[in-house]
Amino acid sequence: MNLASFKEKLQAKSIFYSDSVLIEDMPSVVGYDKQFRWSWMATQLNTFIIASDCSGTLITKPFLEAHLKSSFMYSKVEYNGWPRGLQAATAVISILIADNITEEAKTYCKKLQSGKKWAGFTIPVVIDSNTKEMFFFHRRPMWGRIYFPYFAEIIMELTSK
Fold first, then answer.
1. Which of 23, 49, 104, 115 lies 20 to 30 Å (CA to CA) from residue 72?
2. What is the side-by-side strand order in the sheet with 26-37?
3. Do 122 and 151 contact (CB within 8 A), yes or no?
4. What is the pLDDT of residues 25-39, one digit of tens each?
């Protein structure tokens, strides 16, 4: 997977995107999707899907944390809708495409250790560009449990071949 194929998948799903963004000095493509579902207790979920090309950069837990923080700050600046918490939530799915990923970073993604935010979520995903292996959450946490099937679905749709 690369940024060009990610952008094509966003276009195919009719998801608004921007491709001239730098997150942590990495070239990135940002998709934005707004969904309302009754099954989400009548809430609106504003999802920013940020894919960054990190080739040549060692992906560590501190790097992931910094990227997630920068991505969430980007979403706060770019989002203009209802305030978070008033029947609205914001999610940031951060997809890092890299060829050098530490085991600690892989575990961080699998165990979803990115923490909670008020009416917000940050979901780390790393893709090994050499093996095409993807690492993201394996279980749904209690906090925001109703949204995680959607997160898994959109991650798989945008990162699969």
1. 104
2. 16-23, 26-37, 43-53, 88-98, 120-128, 134-135
3. no
4. 899 999 999 999 998
Count of domains observed in the chain: 1
Tokens 């978070």 label which residue? 84
Is 117 within a domain? yes
Name the DSSP class of 83: P
Cα 77 to chain center, whole Å?
16
Positions of the chain with pLDDT under 70: 82-85, 113-119, 142, 161
Which residues are bridge partners to 49 per DSSP? 31, 93
- What is the pLDDT at residue 83? 66
C-alpha angle with apex 72: 60 to 32, nearest 5 degrees? 115
For residue 160, tell me if it sits in a domain: no
Q: Is residue 145 one of the residues assigned to a domain?
A: yes
Element (H, E) at 17: strand 16-23
Whole-number Å distance between alpha carbons of 152 and 136 = 9
Number of C-beta neighbours around residue 151 at 10 A: 22
Q: What is the pLDDT of residue 92?
A: 93
Whether 51 is covered by a domain: the verdict is yes
Query: Is residue 105 within 8 Å of 63, Cβ to Cβ?
Result: yes
At 138 the pLDDT is 81
